[in-house]
TrEMBL record:
Cofactor(s) essential for the protein: pyridoxal 5'-phosphate
Keywords: Amino-acid biosynthesis, Cytoplasm, Methyltransferase, One-carbon metabolism, Pyridoxal phosphate, Transferase
Molecular functions per Gene Ontology: glycine hydroxymethyltransferase activity; methyltransferase activity; pyridoxal phosphate binding
Name used for this protein in its record: Serine hydroxymethyltransferase
UniProt record similarity statement: Belongs to the SHMT family.
Organism: Berkelbacteria bacterium GW2011_GWE1_39_12
Originating gene: glyA
Amino acid sequence: MSISKKDPKIAKLISAEEKYENETIDLIPSENYASLEVREALGSILSNKYSEGYPGARYYAGEIYVDQIEEIAKDRALKMFKLSPTKWHANVQPYSGSPANLAVYSSVLEPGDKIMGMKLDQGGHITHGLPISFPGRIFDFAFYGVDEKTEMLDYDEILKIAKKEKPKLIICGATAYSRTIDFKKFAEIAQKVNAYLLADISHIAGLVIGGAHPSPFPYADFVMSTTHKTLRGPRGALIICKKEFQKQIDRAVFPGLQGGPHDNQVAAKAVCFGEALDPDFKIYAKQIVKNAKALARELQGHGFKIVSNGTDNHLMLVDLRTLQITGKDAQLMLEEIGIICNKNTIPLDPEKPFIGSGIRIGTPALTTRGMKEKEMTIVAKLIAATLMKKEAKNKLEKEVVKLAKKFPLE
Ligand SMILES: *Cc1c(COP(=O)(O)O)cnc(C)c1O
C-alpha cells in the first residue's frame, strides 16, 4: 500500500482491518464486500471533482466526463429494475440512505405533515421516525408494527391505522424484518387514504434485482435504496420516482439537502449497477436467500427461536429469551470468537434497544465470499456452541478462522 510510507499509522490499521475481515465471519445483514472494481472507482481521481447540479446543467465547468458517468449510472439504475425512462426517474446523487429518505420526505411534504412507518423496535429504520432525529422532529410520525402472534405484518391492521392517522406518506421497508413485503397491498392502503408510498428497499434491493424478492415497482411512488447492502456497491443511495416527481426529487436532493455529488461514489454506483445487471447477480441473490433459510433451519435445529419462525429474505432475528441471555451479551460472546453480528430488539422486547433480547443475522456478506448451505451448517453449529457454552472459546475461535480463511476476500 502506498500510504504505508506517508502515513504508516493509518496504513497499519487498514491492513489490520483487512486481516480481520478475512479471518472473521460477518453476519451483519447490512454489510457486504464490494468488488475491487467498485473500490477502484471510489479511490479514483473523480474524488477531486466538484459538480453541483445535474448532467448538462452544472454550476461548474469541466464536467464532460462526470456528466457521462452520471448518465450511465442513472440509465443502469432504471435497467436494473427493468424500468422505462419514460415513466421513471433515477437520482443517483444521495450521499447515503438517511439523507435520501429525508430528500423523499421533503420533496412532497411540508414540516408538520404526517408520515407513517414501521415501529423502530419492530424493524423500522431510525429515519422512519426516531423522535430525536431531525425528520422525527420536523414531521409528525405514526407507526404500524407486526402482529403479536405471527410476528409478521398484518395488512388489515395497517389499513386500520392508516385510516385513523391519515398520513400523507406511508413508508414500507425495514431494517430488521425477515419476511416478504407485499408492496401491492401497501399501495392499495396508500391509495385508500390518499397517501404517497415510499418503498425503502435499502436492505433488499439486491434481492429485488436478482428476483429473490417481489419488486416495489410499479406500486410505489418513490423507491429509495442504499447501494452498499445486498446491492454490494459503494456506500451511498439512490432514489427512483415516478416521472411526475422528477423535478421535486432532484430539487430536494440538490440544492435541497446536498451540495456537490461525490463523483467517485457516483462512478462506483455505476460499476455496482453494471455488476447487478450481470446474470451472475441473480444467482448471487438467490443464494443469499437459500443460505439464510438454511441458517435459520439449522439454528432452529439447535433449539434457537427465530422471530416469525423463519425467513423469506437475507436476514433473521434470533429471540434469545429462552437462553436467558441478552442480545448485548450474545453479540459480545460471538465477537470474542470472531463471529460479527449485532444485538437487536425483537417484537415487544422487554429490554431497551441498547441491550435487546435478540441478535440480527444475515447472509449477504458470507454469500459474496462463496459460502453455501454446507457452510451455514458450520456457522449455526459455531453460534450454538458459543451461546450455549458447549465448547471452549479458543477452540471455537480457531474454527472460525479456519472457515473464514477458506473463503478469502477479493
Ligand atoms: C440502512 C438503511 C437506511 C440508511 O442508510 P445509511 O446509508 O446508513 O444512512 C435507511 N433505511 C433502511 C431501511 C436501512 O436499512
